[in-house]
Specification:
2 copies of one chain form a homodimer.
Chain A lengths: L1 E7 L1 H4 L6 H12 L3 E8 L3 H9 L7 E5 L10 H8 L4 E3 L1 H13 L6 H4 L3 E3 L3 E3 L8 E6 L2 E6 L3 H11 L1 H7 L2 E11 L3 H7 L1 H5 L6 E7 L2 E11 L3 H19 L3 E4 L4 H12 L3 E5 L5 H7 L8 E7 L2 H8 L3 H7 L4 H15 L3 E7 L14 E8 L2 E8 L4 H22 L3
Parallel strand pairs in A: 1-2, 1-3, 3-8, 13-14, 13-15
Antiparallel strand pairs in A: 4-5, 6-7, 7-8, 9-11, 9-12, 10-11, 15-16, 16-17
């Protein structure tokens, strides 16, 4: 099943909003046998939308349009599509009742603007949107299905999950599998060398891609085969993944969409253990990553963002002399921060970060990108030095990933 | 100057990487008079790339291709483009010397794979990439310029800033201005009602767009006029922006790309004041936002991530009785957290968050999305209750924005 994704919105072309919807649709459609063959971004202009509809590729089965369904004046997708498919916009009292209900839960009353969202095409299947005021719409036209969804990501996802993905899965002739193996701490080209022999010996129907992100590289194995070959191919892929995981060693931390913070959280839950943070250069980002996971209160107790040296001494008990002699970015201080957090917050584990995130503050001995990370636990306190790059944001992201992976290895490896 | 942006990479179609490059290019090109008329994403396939090159729109002046220049086997952009424009790949010793130098700064040695990156087209202008191993390339062909850049965002940005943006600015016949007014705390449709009369009276050459993000709505005014009208139009836009800011009141917090954490940081620097955080439901994300800004050590001292109630009492001095009587998510506790952090970290200001981020933990009285935020400062401690939605990630993001805006208003409004 070939799919074209069309995102509508000047804000996307102008770059003031990043098109995360296309990424999500690509990912989810692939899982059910849909293949996004083109993805494009158009202006909020009826001319651009009509031209894209006129030029949909011949062998496309499904066109998913996102955006331009909001209550404001620059949103014109609904009108353009209704005209294109020869329909008319008609007021739907039941939809307006739904909009009123939604507003009520927020303690608000819909405006005249929102009433316009209850005008809907008389020639489309309406896709009920329980989480927003813009309905989805579907048209079957010249052998293709066209679905228009709101651009707000969580509304789009909700409607796609109900009205698009099951339909694609049923219609698809292909079985598609994407398995993503996640690694931390090894750069892309080193990784490629390490797995080179394995990669060369992959069966031709297994495609491999390297997907780097700050501090992480994901390796994606993908297959797309006729549905009847699914079982055999599934087994082949499983064997390949197992061999790959062996080659990766400690750099491997998990599969699929699971982030390091989820993997660490699971390990802590299984052991019934707790963790605290002591963050200098990451300023709270390690705690934020850990607590982004629902249920993290089972293992995350809290932390100290010790940005200033006075906080390192007062709240974490770091020795003032150590700060003077070794500097804040040092093995001694990183370890003292982790041990201090573990003791003062009474947890099994604590992870500490201290580094020169940049752009200023570097020296010859400790250039920008120098980061010390320490993990204190029941089996002692160990630290590691990292040399990252020049970019502050990337250095912080990499530090978070490195800290989480060090914590993971220690928690998983610990005897109790 | 019309620009087409083509991103190449299966990982983008599959959605495993979000196409932030297109967003950045849209934004930066617009600032210099370039207009992205189409943006698309293609597979790592020579067929797809050739077909896109064949179908570039007639009135496009510049085609920017990103991605597919890496050292791994799925990267084939360089080869396809070189063939398409009738050239050959030739080994360039000086480029390999540069690659060796880059590796040396990272304490590594290039592999055979990286040597392939020194093979470059003999019919293109090479665009030196000081921050990575993949060179950029430019071809002038049939009256259009084609530029191929690496897909790694900071490499792409570096090359675009040097080799594309100044060229577009010089060639463009139009003067383009985008002014983005940033607001926090007022939903899109309420905002639209509030500024409705102003919006209706806008001159026709000023386009307005609403760009919502969790906790924020950006209002973008854009104009695109012949270069000779720039001065007059600039003044008209300035007047409109001033009128808009008046209408927005406390919801307005700044212009352009400046995030709330930067605006707050500036206000603290000007007053020579400091801030601490006490974070429960945000888990460190407020501190992470504040410290994402270079130089934030001038005003951010540190904070306590008080996730468990025991940490709230032990490290922030929150009264145990208050936790029992009012619960952790309450005005009393939020204020005690802020006051405790201000006192214990010795800062002028402290901001505290406590809430039910979800998906679990809600009650009838305090459903998921209930968040209390408090700011303690030299002029006292005040708290506000927010009712957010059901989604954990969005609730955390909204809480961070609300906390930063409350802090901003207090710092800016304080008499000393």
């Amino acid at each position: 099943m070939n799919v074209e994704v069309i995102a509508i919105g000047d804000e996307l072309l102008l770059g003031q909003t990043v098109n995360t919807n296309a990424a999500w649709l690509g990912l989810e459609l692939a899982k059910v046998g849909g293949s996004v063959v083109r993805s494009s971004v158009l202006a909020d202009s009826s001319e651009a939308i009509v031209s894209a509809l006129d030029n949909v590729l011949k062998d496309t089965d499904l066109v998913v349009l996102t955006g331009g369904l909001g209550p404001t004046k620059d949103d014109l997708t609904k009108k353009v599509l209704t005209d294109y498919f020869g329909g008319e916009l008609v007021y739907q009292p039941s939809v307006f009742a739904h909009i009123e209900d939604l507003f009520k839960t927020l303690g608000r009353v819909p405006s005249e603007r929102n009433r316009e969202q209850a005008f809907l095409p008389n020639n489309a299947t309406l896709l009920h949107n329980p989480v927003g005021t813009a309905m989805g719409m579907a048209w079957d036209f010249n052998g293709k299905r066209y679905v228009s969804l709101p651009g707000v990501p969580y509304e789009m996802k909700h409607l796609a999950a109900v009205f698009i993905l099951p339909w694609v899965q049923e219609k698809s002739k292909f079985w598609v599998q994407n398995r993503t193996v996640r690694t931390q701490g090894v750069p892309e080209s080193e990784l490629a060398d390490r797995i080179s022999a394995w990669e060369d010996a992959l069966p031709s129907f297994v495609k491999l891609a390297y997907l780097p992100a700050p501090g992480l590289v994901k390796l994606r194995l993908s297959v797309r085969v006729p549905k009847e070959d699914a079982e055999v191919v599934k087994q082949v892929v499983e064997t390949q993944v197992q061999a790959l995981v062996q080659l990766l060693g400690a750099a491997y931390f998990g599969e699929g969409d699971r982030a390091l913070e989820e993997v660490v959280g699971d390990a802590l839950v299984i052991k019934g253990q707790t963790v605290a943070t002591a963050e200098s250069c990451t300023g709270g980002a390690v705690g934020a990553a850990l607590t982004s996971v629902p249920g993290s209160s089972r293992y995350f107790v809290g932390g100290i963002q010790a940005y200033a040296n006075t906080i390192k001494t007062q709240l974490l008990g770091v020795d003032e002399a150590a700060l003077v002699v070794h500097g804040a970015v040092s093995e001694v201080v990183a370890k003292a921060m982790a041990s201090g957090a573990r003791k003062r917050l009474g947890t099994n584990w604590a992870v500490a970060t201290t580094g020169v995130a940049g752009p200023d503050g570097g020296s010859t001995e400790k250039p920008v990108g120098t980061v010390w990370i320490a993990v204190a636990g029941p089996d002692g306190c160990r630290a590691e030095r990292f040399q990252m790059g020049k970019d502050r944001g990337r250095n912080i992201q990499k530090s978070v990933q490195a800290a989480l992976n060090m914590l993971r290895q220690r928690v998983v490896g610990a005897s109790q």
